[in-house]
Amino acid sequence: MRQGSKTLIAALAVLLVTLGLTACGGGDDDSGSTTAADAGSQGQSESADGKSDKGNSGSGGGQDGSGDGDSRSGDSGSSGFTPKQHNDSGGGSQQFRQKGGDNSVQDFGEEAGAEEFDAAAVALHNFLDARAEGNWAAACDYMSNSIVESFEKLAVQAKQIDETSCAGILENLTNPAAKKSMKAEAAKADVGSLRVEGDRSFVIYTGTGNTILAMPMADEDGDWKVASLAGTPLN
User: Fold this and answer.
1) From the CB of residue 130, how many other CB atoms can be counted at a distance below 10 Å?
2) Confidence (pTM)
3) How far is it, in rounded angstroms, from Cα 27 to Cα 165?
4) How many Å apart are CA 166 and CA 155, to the nearest integer?
């Protein structure tokens, strides 16, 4: 591995920690300790009530926790990516509470309404699907501006890095052996909740092996984006 790549990977590791990919802290109180809900504040926009035309489905996991989310998107964009349809179970965050565990994300803010839920779920699914397909440009399209800008700045600073675009960095950092697991994750992802408070929000979803994950999200002028590179396990 070239020294430049090592430098970039080390810097990205710091970025991942900053963006909330560390394990959830212990405790279930409202003290000032850092928890999963404290992470992921970067990349959040000024409004959490935006609406996206990507979320054109019916009912989702709204505040009443009812309905099956039917996440669709028909916009293939300029990257040649064609979004897939996913059916999300919804149900709200209470189903994910861990007895005696850190429920900071599950109790974070309020449960979003159906329209916000659908739009955020579409963004998450599209990111996971694009990544599973190896369509790095499309994956970057569904990442928040703060993540993309951080990637590009780190790549510019690292010496001997030939590809400094978001797509190129993602491709170079992804182990080809992980392709199978990324496809499995994209196929399995089932969004159950969107918790919103002010300009911060989290999608809670079930991944492979029934792992419960929280993905910080950003609403950028009505367009929902993932605000991290991976979900944080909650169980």
Assistant:
1) 26
2) 0.72
3) 40
4) 9
Q: Are strands 212-220 and 200-206 parallel, antiparallel or unpaired?
A: antiparallel
The mean pLDDT value for 221-227 works out to 92
Cα separation, 49 vs 171, whole angstroms: 33
Can you tell me the distance from the alpha carbon of 106 to that of 7, in angstroms, rounded to the nearest whole number? 36
Q: What distance in Å separates the CA atoms of residue 114 and residue 119, rounded to the nearest whole number?
A: 9
Distance CA 179, CA 163 (A): 21
**Rounded-to-integer distance, Cα 84 and Cα 26, Å:** 37
Q: Which residues of 81-105 are buried (b: 16+ CB within 10 A; e: fewer)?
A: bbbbebebbbbbbebbeeeeebbbb
Q: Is 27 helix (H, G, I), strand (E, B) or coil?
A: coil
pLDDT of residue 37: 59
**Which tens digits make up the pLDDT trace of 37-88?**
554 443 343 333 333 333 333 334 444 444 444 443 444 455 789 999 999 9
**Tokens (6 digits) for 18:** 């900053």
Between 44-48, 79-83, 100-104, 128-132, the lowest mean confidence (pLDDT) is in 44-48
| Residue numbers of the domain that contains 74 | 3-233
Assess whether pLDDT exceeds 80 at residue 198.
yes
Give me the residue label for tokens 């028909």. 74
